[in-house]
Amino acid sequence: MRYIIIGAGAVGGAIGGRLAQSGREVVLVARGAHLAALRAGGLRLRVPEGELTYRPAAVDGPAELGALRADDVLVLAVKTQDTEAALAAWGPAPVAGGGTAAERLPLLCAQNGVEGQRLALRRFRHVYGVCVWLPATHVEPGVVSAAGTPLTGMLHLGRHPHGTDDTLRRIAADLEAARFGAPVVPDVARWQYAKLLGNLANAIEAVSGPLESEAARALYDRVRAEGEAVLDAAGIAHAGAAEQKEARGDRITLVPLPGGPRGGGSSWQSLARGTGTIEADHLNGEIVLLGRLHGVPTPLNELLQRLANTFAREHRAAGSLPVADLVRLADEAERERGA
């Protein structure tokens, strides 16, 4: 199988680099300065064993590849807000022997949240969900770091909306050979919703920095409680903390890498890189949506969604709102909603 990594940033670059290291054929899809760097010098992957360089094909879209192969696997690793554009570009791509990518090829949604695979299923017949636990950073054009060892990350895999199949088991075997845990599960959404609850902290981190203070962690506890209440009201199951810890065990330990500490997660990185967009609409915004559908107030997640979008739109510095000010705004939001 050939793996086409659509969005070779932090997560996509780490997956693509490790697959290339294990001898799998990989194509990296990127744009702008990152694409130029990949073409000029290859992908530089900083991992605990050192900096590794791989030179897989790098393209900006399907046209450069001609007809896709029947054994291609598409790995969608763009941020959720960029999903529609990626699906529109890759879905109609022709496949050798007839048909299109949307009709014939497996599409793995290696993304935060749950919306990407919903969008994909409108266009693609064979959609797979991935619960991504992969601490990685897009350091600079052409450079990605992933600090986990002995495994680089944990990728729970399942068909969307449910089930498993032989294609998925073959993909899982390749990922496991590439230093990932890749459990194949029939209920991948249960793992993704558990990850979503953790990702509610992303907006806090993005606007006020890492959750290092007691005040920041206490605020996250309140935000998460909103999320759990919403999932309960919606009847949506999610994996518990003990189950998640058991799945990862001691197989993923983060170690310091050259070039400084990891600055923050995906939302923090979006602000730090000045992309102008952020995925809060599909993280905190997912909780807001479910809350509105099921009559559960979500003032804290509404606040974080609004602030994160404002920071991205106005190109404000990541982590520049003091935690004390964020807590004050959260208290005001709850009072206004009578929480």
From TrEMBL:
InterPro entries the UniProt entry points to: 6-PGluconate_DH-like_C_sf, 6PGD_dom2, KPA_reductase, KPR-Related, KPR_N, NAD(P)-bd_dom_sf
Coiled-coil annotation: which residues? Answer: none
Residues of the Ketopantoate reductase C-terminal domain:
188-309
Under Pfam families, the record lists: ApbA (PF02558), ApbA_C (PF08546)
The record's SUPFAM superfamilies line, in alphabetical order, gives: 6-phosphogluconate dehydrogenase C-terminal domain-like (SSF48179), NAD(P)-binding Rossmann-fold domains (SSF51735)
Q: Which domain of life is it from?
A: Bacteria
Which residues belong to any copy of the Ketopantoate reductase N-terminal domain? 4-152
Q: What is this protein called?
A: Ketopantoate reductase family protein
Q: Which organism is it from?
A: Streptomyces anandii
